């Protein structure tokens, strides 16, 4: 029984080798294909026809989008497919072998270069990369890449910015009449891409650019990736603290002019804004093409903070001068609820003003006689008009009035800055 099983296993192996071919068949194909093959000659029987090269990009990892240097680093591979008219065979003559793999240096390849590479213009592939060849001459070449390419970024709406980076491929020596670069039906694959913590990465299609050089048209094929920033981290660590510091500019005017800490609070807020402005400067590129809204936001809050320092300093100085001149806080004035009311009577012959003190309906002088009631009534009417003029002449000290005006103006300025910034960010 065991002998029978071993026999049939051996026969099955022989049949499979006979059907699919083996190493000797591969050697025969190599000899038939490459004995008279030259890697320097474009494999086309009619040179009036261009070689169509179909390309797609597969992205596996986005390492970094450096806004400061405007460089995109990513890992992936390109897939190139074209027809080599000199590399074909009859599978029936080689036990059904339809595909072989060969080192890339044994076949002709299009001279594809990354046109916007950060380093020198780099050609794709190395000696360790294999290419697959089908029996009908279809060649598929898939070199892996770890690229750093330039990427023009727009930081106007940072940290809600969206940028499109392009990886530009071109044939360095062959014009469009010789090698025709075309994108695949799905030019950018992301099914194996690792999620990025800073950006949402999306495929944004391709673009084609033609350039005229000495009467020949060269084609550049660009693969576009769209980067949309994830803003949650920057909102919590930057926008919220900066806005709260702006609120502190207003809060400093809620302190009484008698408090010397008013100026200290305003100066602390001003210094905090300079620190945040330095943080933004470290992350953003030094460019004037697009003015970053968040930089304008911080600068406006910085100016508001400076004016807050100046306003608080003026309020404190004026208050100290008023104290030296004998002016007091409005809190020092008598209250009608707990102090006697003052009622001014007519001047006597000496020119002095006589006041009657009334507490809870009782007058400090002896009770009026009935015969004096009519006279008191007429005098009361005169005194009421005099009291109104006296109350109008009581003024709040200058420091308190200025502090109130600064509070109102700073509040309006802060609300305006925040509202305009929010509208510009949304749109």
Automatic annotation (TrEMBL):
This protein's record includes keyword Ion transport: yes
Pfam families: Neur_chan_LBD, Neur_chan_memb
Cleavable signal peptide: 1-23
Location of this chain's protein in the cell: Membrane
Single Gene Ontology MF annotation: transmembrane signaling receptor activity
Residues annotated as domain Neurotransmitter-gated ion-channel transmembrane: 239-326
Membrane topology of this protein: Multi-pass membrane protein
Start-end of Basic and acidic residues biased regions: 374-392
Keywords recorded for this protein, A-Z: Ion channel, Ion transport, Membrane, Signal, Transmembrane, Transmembrane helix, Transport
Gene3D superfamilies: Neurotransmitter-gated ion-channel ligand-binding domain (2.70.170.10), Neurotransmitter-gated ion-channel transmembrane domain (1.20.58.390)
Primary location: membrane
Region span, Disordered: 372-392
Segments traversing the membrane: 233-256, 263-282, 294-318, 405-426
Entries under InterPro entries matching the protein: Neur_chan_lig-bd (IPR006202), Neur_chan_lig-bd_sf (IPR036734), Neur_channel (IPR006201), Neuro-gated_channel_TM_sf (IPR036719), Neuro_actylchol_rec (IPR038050), Neurotrans-gated_channel_TM (IPR006029), Neurotransmitter_ion_chnl_CS (IPR018000)
Location of the Neurotransmitter-gated ion-channel ligand-binding domain: 28-231
Cellular-component GO terms for this entry: membrane
Homology family: Belongs to the ligand-gated ion channel (TC 1.A.9) family.
Name of the protein described by the UniProt record: Neuronal acetylcholine receptor subunit alpha-3-like
Encoding gene (name): LOC106058830
